[in-house]
């Protein structure tokens, strides 16, 4: 079978069915309007939008900040341990339907602790869903604690302090929220401390911010993976470095269009990132707000960019496992399964050349 001429419907099925990992999903961004309304009722929270339709109508974002304002407001319905459980369970169930076998899930504790929710409450709900998801759904998952970059480094240290008694429940830290005006260097000391603690390190950089934010996230924060990173193509030296060091980028195509990083999916640079040899992956970011979970990100992107075919599908899924923070032996097992899957599609031989 010629991998480059695979019919469109078959490519769609291949993208949906192949096993994959998701490395960039904010769990608060998986709160669907239905769940927001159900939790608001359960917790007697009054929402600024009287109906789900009106809430959905507000999802007309013009940039990252216009999204974050609504995203933080939506997270306000989360109050009890079971709310955090229900949100995470809903995501894991959805992930299973997309053949996600592993997810590294971001959470924003400061959004909740600032409202008086104890760290223990939120981490317990997230962790309980993850354990149950592993057992009952067969979806593996782990947590990455994100610092909000619009707040101070002192605040980041404070939440790290609160989190440390639960150190075994998360594998790493990240940096998210409003990028412009909040450069990586603001968090150099707290990332150094996390590194000493043996936490894995990631950071959003180059989503709205410049290529320099990516270089600084690597040099100053020692980030092992860059979330988004799509502005790297503005700096050829940075591209050469990302390729040489095979630093993974967790790219989120539907998010980038909704937040106007690119005007249309057909303008997205993911095919160019792959062609340059960058270790890019596909992810959903905030699927309840951006119009789709992981498979929708894959299928819409491949439909919009005809240069992407089965070869890139394999490459993206393989990199998603390779770039994950699990033991090498577990990665190898997942990649073996992926190879078997492609062999069954009679595609592996040509692809892997
Ligand atoms: N928090 C949730 N989604 C985000 C994004 N796309 N960029 C920065 N911070 C976020
Ligand atoms: Zn993100």
Provide the CATH topology: TIM Barrel
**What pattern of helices and strands is seen along the backbone?**
HEHHHHEHHEHEHEHEHEHHEHHHHH
Distance between the termini: 14 Å
Radius of gyration: 19 Å
Any low-confidence stretches, pLDDT <50, length ≥5? Answer: none
Helix count?
A: 18
User: CATH first level: which class?
Assistant: Alpha Beta
Determine the fraction of residues in helical runs and give it as a percent range: 40-55%
Give the overall silhouette: globular
**CATH architectural arrangement:** Alpha-Beta Barrel
Q: Output mean pLDDT.
A: 96
Number of strands: 8
CATH superfamily: Metal-dependent hydrolases
Bound molecules: adenine, zinc ion
Structural class: alpha/beta
Largest sheet: 8 strands, parallel
List its traits:
alpha/beta, TIM Barrel, binds adenine, single chain, 8 strands, about 350 residues, binds zinc ion
